[in-house]
Design brief:
Number of strands: 0
Radius of gyration: 22 Å
Order of helices and strands: HHHHHHHHHHHHHHHHHHH
Number of helices: 19
Strand content: under 5%
Oligomer: single chain
Largest sheet: none
Shape: globular
Distance between the termini: 36 Å
Length: 456
């Protein structure tokens, strides 16, 4: 507390001891604070260059260690993903050891993944009771909801760089929030809206079946519907085509997780996506929206970016393909270990395609990006981790019977599917957004072992 008062600005100096005390009372608050810190991590840095997220992680680890030393924490739970996580982190260390480029960048990237792994481990070990699940779910929704609100204000007020303006004759700009980029902003919302939507549907169905508690349930259902609509509105305002495709895949994932008749809903989602493309093609949608929808097909067709004549109409598509090709060239040059985690931009000048000499920071396809940075070993380990996550989702869906817990599990399945789809076009594992995703993965593990109670 003395250090906080001496080193931090007064508002933070007063809040830091409170956060510490709360985390010591219930260590499950540690991961919750880390989740809440993600949208503000780049706004202000603490003394020593620490971001809010890094400080929250240190706080969470300290509180958990204190609880274990005091024997207040439950016995350590390994979880189904411990081996895949360990294998993946080993693969990143392997790629770091053999990187011919920056070891510092590789270590930083590996630590970011270790941070996500720790959040997963803390979630399955500390989130054991219904109130702790409720707290974690609230944080998983509140932080992206605040981000969506900021993005919607930016969209409506036209408050953004000229390059984000959606049309010369319209005052709107693409929403980007505090994250700074519309595509990453939309990826962050893809990690939340499936949970809000699944909760809204689940709470509504629960309220209809339990008239004695209808007031409380309808209130929660109403809040969940508002959150889902706000998150989806923010996603739409980003005008991120990759995010829109990811959202469709998220809906399909939730429908498949429900099984039975809901598989038809998955087919309906595909039909709606196709109808949107058709409407855009025949001019029945606003021009700026139709243009972005119809151009999605161009992002799916591979071509040689160095052999294309660049025009204003195809600039974005060719630029993305040039980044993907550079990542592929990195893999071909270093097939086993890649250029090293976090070294895409460092190595990019040696693998640039044609006249595309400027790196965009990632390969615009996370699977190619992972292969380029960590080689076949890293990509294989990452795919093993994803298979483990899907296996965890299946086990959770089979074991959880409470309708609210099942809704949360379905929402987490939607998040997994949306991120898997969106990662075909972006790298969503930046700016510590992996904390949000890893907490959703951990929540699936917690729901499998949580004490089942008949009432919330």
């Amino acid at each position: 507390m003395a250090l906080a008062l001496a080193l931090l600005p007064l508002p933070l100096a007063l809040l830091a001891p409170l956060a510490l005390l709360l985390a010591l009372i219930d260590p499950a608050l540690g991961p919750a604070l880390a989740i809440l810190s993600v949208p503000i991590q780049e706004l202000v840095h603490l003394p020593g260059g620490l971001s809010y997220t890094q400080a929250a992680m240190l706080l969470a680890l300290g509180a958990w260690a204190g609880a274990m030393l005091a024997r207040r924490a439950p016995p350590l739970l390994a979880g189904r993903l411990l081996v895949p996580w360990a294998l993946f982190l080993w693969a990143l260390l392997f790629a770091t050891a053999f990187s011919p480029f920056s070891a510092t960048a590789a270590i930083k990237e590996t630590l970011r993944w270790a941070e996500a792994g720790l959040i997963w481990l803390m979630t399955i070990n500390l989130v054991r009771r219904p109130r702790q699940v409720a707290l974690l779910v609230a944080c998983l929704l509140l932080a992206p909801l605040a981000e969506a609100a900021i993005g919607l204000v930016q969209f409506l007020a036209g408050a953004g760089p000229p390059s984000f303006r959606i049309a010369a004759d319209l005052p709107f700009v693409r929403a980007y929030g505090t994250i700074g980029q519309p595509n990453s902003f939309a990826g962050y919302l893809n990690m939340a809206w499936p949970l809000a939507l699944a909760l809204a549907v689940g709470l509504t169905a629960y309220a209809l079946r339990r008239p004695a508690r209808v007031g409380r349930m309808w209130l929660l259902a109403g809040l969940a519907w508002l959150a889902a609509l706000a998150l989806l509105a923010g996603l739409a305002a980003s005008l991120s085509r990759g995010a829109w495709l990811g959202a469709v895949i998220g809906l399909i994932g939730m429908a498949l997780a429900l099984g039975g008749r809901m598989r038809w809903a998955a087919l309906a989602a595909i039909g709606l996506a196709g109808a949107a493309l058709v409407l855009g093609g025949v001019g029945l949608l606003p021009a700026f929206l139709a243009q972005r929808l119809v151009s999605i097909g161009a992002y799916l067709a591979p071509f040689d970016a160095g052999a294309v004549v660049v025009t204003p109409a195809n600039f974005a598509v060719v630029e993305r393909m040039s980044q993907i090709q550079a990542g592929w060239r990195m893999l071909l040059a270093y097939p086993l270990s890649g250029v090293g985690p976090g070294n895409y931009s460092v190595a990019y000048p040696q693998f640039a395609v044609g006249s595309w000499y400027v790196s965009r920071g990632h390969a615009h396809n996370f699977y190619v990006h992972m292969a380029g940075e960590a080689g076949l070993v890293g990509l294989g380990a990452y795919l093993v981790l994803l298979i483990g996550v899907l296996r965890q989702a299946v086990h959770t869906l089979r074991s959880v019977t409470h309708p609210i817990w099942r809704s949360i599990a379905l929402g987490c399945c939607g998040i997994i599917a949306a991120v898997l789809g969106h990662d075909l076009f972006e790298n969503l594992h930046v700016l510590s957004m992996g904390i949000q995703l890893a907490a959703a993965w951990g929540l699936l593990g917690s729901l499998e072992v949580i004490e089942k109670r008949p009432h919330m």
